[in-house]
Input
Amino acid sequence: MTTSQRERRDRVIDAAMQLAAEGGYDAVQMRDVATKADVALGTVYRYFGSKDHLLAASLASWVELLYIRFSEHPSSKATAGERVLDVLYRAQRALGTAPVLGAALFASIASPDPQVVACQQQVISLLDAIVLRAIGDDPPADVGDRARMIGHVWYSALTGWVAGWSSLERVASELAIAVGLLLP
Output
């Protein structure tokens, strides 16, 4: 992508995130995104084939920003388990400040839309990288498997929060149990 194409794509993502933060998943309409981003509707569809694709790409961008932030400001906790919990709790607090946006983004990532699959893979890879970086040096031999399982537990618990049958406190509790079992 050229710089101007990347800037337009980023404006579209920003517009979608603003609309989702204001009104949730249903508030994100492609025409409204185009208007808010000050681009043609065709431009939105050039980058994103569906609303789910757009919101899933927005989630991937958000997780990428988390990865960068955590790389710049890593956890200073003593053990691998404490560091993992610290960075994931920080991410969870960020989600908790915008619950309507979080619900919209997580709803999209579960979509069966084939274009969402690449975003799903990007989010998984970034979450694995966040956890692996937090684990740090001298990891267990099966560190990749452990990181992936922690990511799965976190995603599953967050899905319960988004669906309304769980709280962020319960998400934190389930995450602490998983990390305690996998990184004692």
In short: The chain is about 75% helix and 0% strand.
